[in-house]
């Protein structure tokens, strides 16, 4: 995934971020209207670690554009340069779990 190199683990025994995100539950997309345009909201997360390794994203079929928030290794990355409204929607639909962002967590590796 573009712009996510810092979220990858240096430990070669740990699967790639893509593999981890696709290992957990995900649901069907939810259609939203932002600034008069349709956007689909999707989520993906690592099995048994959804708060710690997760992706919440918006996809515009009209613009062929995706923006989102990646949470991994106790950090948050915004991907695709989301607008303030897009960030707000993502934060409302999938609030962050503050416990997953604590530096003393074993998930911070």
From TrEMBL:
Region (Disordered): 1-23
Biased composition (Basic and acidic residues): 9-21
Membrane-spanning ranges: none
Name of the protein this chain belongs to: Inhibitor of vertebrate lysozyme (Ivy)
Naturally occurring in which organism (per UniProt): Rhizopus delemar
């Amino acid at each position: 995934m573009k712009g996510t190199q810092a979220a990858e683990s240096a430990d070669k025994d740990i699967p790639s971020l893509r593999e981890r995100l696709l290992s957990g539950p995900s649901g069907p997309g939810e259609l939203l209207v932002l600034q008069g345009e349709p956007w689909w909201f999707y989520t993906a997360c690592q099995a048994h670690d959804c708060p710690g390794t997760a992706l919440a994203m918006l996809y515009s079929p009209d613009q062929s554009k995706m923006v989102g928030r990646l949470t991994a290794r106790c950090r948050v990355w915004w991907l695709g340069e989301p607008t303030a409204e897009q960030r707000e929607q993502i934060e409302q639909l999938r609030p962050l779990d503050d416990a997953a962002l604590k530096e003393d967590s074993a998930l911070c590796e």
